[in-house]
Amino acid sequence: MSNQPWRFYDAETGVLLRGSMLLPNVAAVEANTPAGHLATQVDVDPLTQRIDVATGEPVAYTPPAVVATWDAPSARAERDRLLAACDWVVARAYELGAAVPAPWAAYRAALRSLTEQPGFPASISWPTAPTT
Predict the structure, then answer these.
(1) Is the separation of the CB atoms in 16 and 47 below 8 Å?
(2) Strand partners, 9
(3) Is 75 exposed, middle or buried (0-12, 13-18, 19+ CB in 10 A)?
(4) Closest CA to 121 of 76, 65, 67
(5) Angle at alpha carbon of residue 59, lines to 24 and 45, rounded to 5°
(6) In angstroms, rounded to a whole number, what is the distance separating the alpha carbons of residues 117 and 115?
(7) What are phi and psi of 23, to 5 degrees?
(8) pLDDT in tens, 46-56
(9) What are the structural domain ranges in the chain?
(10) Do the Cβ atoms of 32 and 45 come closer than 8 Å?
(11) What are the beta bridge partners of residue 16?
């Protein structure tokens, strides 16, 4: 008997695990099914479908939106990374004896004052880097 593709889904929600396994028989399927999951041979897209646990049929699915939450050290590290990524603008202005362009000065000031935002670090409004 040849291997057949199997997918696994959460027994309570029907949300599919990404990927599939090629397995030769039911014993192999049972041995490889993760705890709390069921197996199916239905052809589905785990990014846009889930399995209706009552019927075993695929239904439309929209994954929950990813919500970025920050802790203070991670937020500061990201801020520092963003500041370092635009250090060249300050260095270039210094080399030319010119002022730092206003949009870049404002962006860097907004990054430096990030920790003063209400709700920091749980709620952060990240400034957008200038395009010029």
Answers:
(1) no
(2) 16, 38
(3) buried
(4) 76
(5) 50
(6) 6
(7) -130, 145
(8) 989 999 999 99
(9) 4-60, 72-116
(10) no
(11) 9
